[in-house]
Amino acid sequence: MMETALTYMLNVWDDLLKYRHRGDYTVDNMVAERAIRPFTVSRKNSLHFSSEESVDVAMTFYTIIETAKIYLSDIKGYLIHVFRELLSGNKNDETLIPSAVSV
């Protein structure tokens, strides 16, 4: 097993060090860590949900909100817009995703 791991490392060693040749690459992965933190915390909290369906609903909301954080500065305005559109009968998902809405 150790031989397999070392062989793999040696085969990809040049790729592992490519970040040193580009000044815009970061050495850490804190951006990714911060992006998944809400999901990690909610995963622990979801143990206390009453059903699998409620977990699915909560994770859908987390996904929508975290995606909206990437594309928009006004999350509350976005959610108000989406709920109003849904209540008025808009079922077109393409027009409701955060990247398609300007709030």
From TrEMBL:
Domain Transposase IS66 central: 2-54
Membrane-spanning segments: none
One Pfam match: DDE_Tnp_IS66
InterPro entries: Transposase-related, Transposase_IS66_central
Domain of life: Bacteria
Protein name: Transposase IS66 central domain-containing protein
